Amino acid sequence: MRMYDLIMKKRNGGELSSEEITFLINGYVEGNIPDYQMSAFLMAVYFKGMTEGETLAMTNAVAHSGDMVDLAGIDGIKVDKHSTGGVGDKTTLIIAPIVAACGVKVAKMSGRGLGHTGGTIDKLESIPGMKTSLSREKFFQVVNETGLSVIGQSGNMTPADKKMYALRDVTATVDSIPLIAVSIMGKKLAAGNDCILLDVKTGSGAFMKTVEDSIALAKEMVAIGENAGKRTVALITDMDIPLGHNIGNSLEVIEAVDTLKGNGPDDLTQVCLNLAANMLYLAGKGNLDECMEMAKQAITDGTVLERLVAMVKAQGGDASVIEDTANFAKAPYSCEIPADKTGFITVMDTEKCGIASTLLGAGRETKDSEIDYTAGLILYRKVGDYVEAGEKIAVMYASDETLFANARSVYEDAITIQEEKPEEKPLIFARVTKDAVEKY
Amino acid sequence: MRMYDLIMKKRNGGELSSEEITFLINGYVEGNIPDYQMSAFLMAVYFKGMTEGETLAMTNAVAHSGDMVDLAGIDGIKVDKHSTGGVGDKTTLIIAPIVAACGVKVAKMSGRGLGHTGGTIDKLESIPGMKTSLSREKFFQVVNETGLSVIGQSGNMTPADKKMYALRDVTATVDSIPLIAVSIMGKKLAAGNDCILLDVKTGSGAFMKTVEDSIALAKEMVAIGENAGKRTVALITDMDIPLGHNIGNSLEVIEAVDTLKGNGPDDLTQVCLNLAANMLYLAGKGNLDECMEMAKQAITDGTVLERLVAMVKAQGGDASVIEDTANFAKAPYSCEIPADKTGFITVMDTEKCGIASTLLGAGRETKDSEIDYTAGLILYRKVGDYVEAGEKIAVMYASDETLFANARSVYEDAITIQEEKPEEKPLIFARVTKDAVEKY
Fold it and tell me: What is the maximum span of chain A, computed from C-alpha positions, in angstroms?
């Protein structure tokens, strides 16, 4: 087998066999296939796409390129959730306790933030003492004892994905739907869960800017998951507006706790209930309506916060900040942003909101940046709200006053205020299963 | 400027500016742009093509990436000729003396053969003592004294083309018409001639298999040449059948000499007269009919062979083999191939004919292979000829009897004999100028 022939085949619109795809991925990881051949192949994939058979084979090869997690040490059905990333997306902190409270184990590996999007691991680490790097045994023990555990990736997982992603990043081949699907699903297959719920974000703060592209990506990922023998469902959820009111690490934990107490903002609560219900559905806890009832009930009866407290304690964290979020350290400086005119907020460019938060110290501009866990924004007014000129629409928090000027100008640039009330848009656009795309 | 942005622009169908193209080519030659970015760019070009402005800018950048030949030391208008390569293509050996005899200087750099196609330099080197590597001064002196000189490329010409071609060769991006045009025309611009005649071969022995593709390539090259200020014309000539009867180095020189004496095969003579007439036309010697008359006259009055003899002598070669081709060394072994049935030869797969010749020792399988100048084939019967089963259709020559078996089986595989006489096809399909495509 020669890589040259595989590039030529893809370039000419042919379909690669499973053996050819495996040869290609293994050869690349082992260094037998050079970057310059791989990048030509990836560009050919950008133009010619991949068949369902090809994406499945590539996902399997990527998953098996490194450590495969075996979750057999945890009893029962394990359900994973993956978000394609957004701003103010603290859903994992809310859903995992809900699902665990309903009797389905969550043994989840999450990532860190980069660029304008946050990461669950950074948010968890804003809890003093919280460990996100556990041994395999400790991880299993926490899940078995508390019903849930969220940790960072460890060991040598999906090296093929890391190497390919780094190459795509410098050769303008990142935004290829089959390649995105392979990258995400490769990591999901390696993570060892039985079922996978995908939260595909769509809009100005998401990687996928349109509902159509988001559905296309969701379909590819659901097909890969199902073909790999995992029950898989995707929800297409809104990221044209930041989710909830809080952006920043401890600020998002605080909002998650509020939501687990039943006091969260409506958009965040609704998205989390839908995600949780679908995870329970995937785990076979009933039909979707029954699962939704179960999730709501869990919040109402107050059992969910206990779950988060138990997990934080089990992972060495100071649970007092969860029991009373007033115990969180606070940023020494704050700065209010007033509306610059009267009218309805019609647009919040969500990527810019995320950049503003990063500029305040809440995110990373490069992999090695230090995070300020107390920094971020609280959005008091969102799209659809009527505001008076001068009224407080947001507050920024930082540990360095000089950061406010830049962040404020980016945030103000993100906001459009107009006379006419904007049309209301759904929070969840569609649900994608192996059989159908249900549009909401 | 970042290479990433240039890849993205091309991938998305944008047009790169002249500055961007120059940055890209220079950065690649200097090693600032890595192979993996260049190969992604080249694959994007494969799918998105290049505009006339882009191909011109890239050709100029490729030409200027190394030494530019300055032919000012040679008086008068200098006309170059380039063939896209074929089997039995000894036209340069015939045209250069004709054009020189008609008063137009030919200062030509030619290549060596690789794979199934031969190279003019190898053919010349079958003449004992012939030097094809001359100093610039000696090259000019030979042209000024004899009217013509054909040498190999020397110095550091078009390193960008060499580096890009090596990359394209392993990334399945060779067969892109704009990239082929840039590669050929970059070398032509660097070679410093005033006018360029392109002989674009078409058919089973050519790089371009269809007339349509050949015309498309010709149009791109003519546009580049004219936009670069060189008078440029292309002929699309047949390579679905080997040109002439002889394939192999000294065998082709012998046939070229026969043709210069007016005793050449009709197809070869016609193609050479047309090419020579167009070169004279480009040099401003008259209209095409007048130039054709001039070329024919040159052969008839016997002045052309003298030109070849003079050039061979000036370049240190033993002209006695030209004056009497019986003086050429002969291969020690020969082997006749009989027709395997009675009927008309309808197909001669020309690439296979070339491979048969290479297998006999006349060509190179790799860059470092040694050539046997005496090896090759003489084709006694060609497409359209009626043959009786058992009749001699070709003779193979080699210095090692064991080579015949393989070569014979490839040659026999190339030949199809059928009952019905095949339709006659033109030798020259079209003439492409900056203003028009004239189909013949």
Answer: 68
